[in-house]
Amino acid sequence: MASRIADSMLLVMGPHQRSIPSHRAGLHCSPGMLCLKLKSILGKEKKRQCSVSTKRSKFVQAVAIPVAPPPLDSAEYRKQLAKNYGFQQIGEPLPENVTFKDVIDTLPKKVNFTEMAAFYHAAKDVITEYQFDRISYVNVFEIDDVKAWKSVLISATSYALGLIMISKAPWYLLPLAWAWTGTAVTGVRHDCAHKSFSRNKLLEDIVGTLAFLPLIYPYEPWRFKHDRHHAKTNMLLEDTAWHPVLGEEFDSSPILRKAIILGYGPIRPWMSMAHWLIWHFDLNKFRPNEVKRVKISLACVFAFMAIGWPLIIYKTGVMGWIKFWLMPWLGYHFWMSTFTMVHHTAPHIPFKSSDEWNAAQAQLNGTVHCDYPRWIEILCHDINVHIPHHISPRIPSYNLRAAHQSLQENWGKYLNEARWNWRLMKTIMTICHVYNKEQNYVAFDKLAPEDSQPIDFLRKVMPDYA
User: Fold this and answer.
1) How far apart (Å, rounded) are the C-alpha atoms in residues 246 and 250?
2) Exposure of 210 by Cβ count < 10 A (0-12 exposed, 13-18 middle, 19+ buried)?
3) What are the CA-CA distances from residue 72 to residues 235, 375, 414 (Å)?
4) 3 state DSSP class of 441
5) Full-model pTM
6) Fewer beta carbons within 10 Å, N or C terminal of the chain?
7) Could you please report the per-residue DSSP string of 293-315?
8) Alpha helices for 7-51 (secondary structure H)
9) Based on C-alpha coordinates, what's the Rg of the chain?
């Protein structure tokens, strides 16, 4: 849902600095489905050009031909981009001949060989000529039951502590208590959904379902759609997480345009609420063989709402429901939105159509590692160590750092790395908007300046500290 534009008018990038008059760009190409056959895994993907058409806005008078940003081959240019965007490092482009298997094979030798059929369940319409039950080259870390249940203990204890803080804190400390509790509730659900929590898959599903209930998130729908996000990361139209706004969507209606600008502007850190509502409760969005499990998860969520919410209100009143449930829930969605934005959105990281998409480039070269304050990383179980998580989602959270160290040793120059800062967020929220094939992203205020007051507001009020 998010989009990225290397807007040369907004960023100083040495010789790339120049003003570009406003224009609109829309993508018109068949979304299709990527047929990732065995030969594709070996790095022989086919490519096809998509045409880009431009439309003129009624209120934007000048039209310009999009100028593609210079290639990222120059170390000095990448260094300047990193400074401008709030990154510590912007990786070199991954060579075309590097395959996803090449990357996976460099993971530490202590890992076990196992099947990836569960993860690739969401990609069966993509990988069509391969036997899922015979995938043997994929490395994943061995599950450690002690470490897994330690993660549960950390989540449960920190969440309980947050609720105690909310009940005891004076009004002026409640935002801190809500922030802590909203961060703690992220829990171990992620490992459960990726089948990296336990060898007992029934137990794994039970723990995952329970971990999702306070968020009124249905476990199985999230698992199915999130697996698809991993299978089609940064694939235009197919990625079920965030993808760029399309030009034709932006142009379709003045009312919709204003809503999009607001959603991808000031309220973007909470836009995962829209994703939660749109993607997880509509049975028509799931395959027939998924519907039964989806219905079970939905029944659990509705039961929690029917029983849990009235109990909270009965014991604490409506204000108690707001204090103990709603505000931590909003805190959780802040992190859900922020992590997703930061991990996959930057002006230099492209979304590609299914015909041009490359798994190794998207997962290794198109995913961002970002460091946060350590307490956040602990409560969120190192989900910020995101590149190895996309190389193999079956790596348990407690082994992500070891996997990332291995990737740094073998592929370090190709990695995108950052430490969370205001400039990074400002870049994403004020530049990465509408899809453009040449530039990756075009900012809203370059296409519709008269409707982009929210973006102008963000440019003025957001700090630029890196």
Assistant:
1) 6
2) middle
3) 20, 34, 11
4) strand
5) 0.78
6) C
7) HHHHHHHHHHHHHHHHHHHHHHH
8) 38-41
9) 22
Signed CA dihedral, 279, 283, 289, 295: sign only = positive
- Give φ, ψ of 235 to 5 degrees: -95, 120
Which two three-digit tokens encode residue 341? 């934005």
3-state helix, strand, coil in the chain (%, to 5): 55, 5, 40
Q: What is the 3-state secondary structure (H, E, C) of 385-438?
A: CHHHHHHCCCCCHHHHHHHHHHHHHHHHHHCEEEECCHHHHHHHHHHCCEEECC
Report the distance separating Cα 229 and Cα 223, nearest Å: 10
Q: Which residue has the tokens 């590609």?
A: 352
Side chain identity at residue 143, one-letter code: I
Q: At a CB cut-off of 8 Å and minimum separation 6, what does 93 contact?
A: 71, 72, 73, 361, 365, 414
> For residue 173, which phi and psi values (nearest 5 degrees)?
-105, 0
pLDDT band at 86, cuts 50/70/90? Answer: very high
Instruction: Locate 242 and state its tokens.
Output: 């965030």
434-441 mean pLDDT: 94
Give the separation between CA 388 and CA 405, rounded to whole angstroms.
9
DSSP class of residue 215 equals G
Instruction: Dig out the tokens for 407 from the structure.
Output: 């990737």
What pLDDT is stored for residue 21 in this prediction?
A: 34
pLDDT exceeds cutoff 60 at 308: yes
Measured CA to CA, the distance from residue 156 to residue 176 in angstroms comes to 18
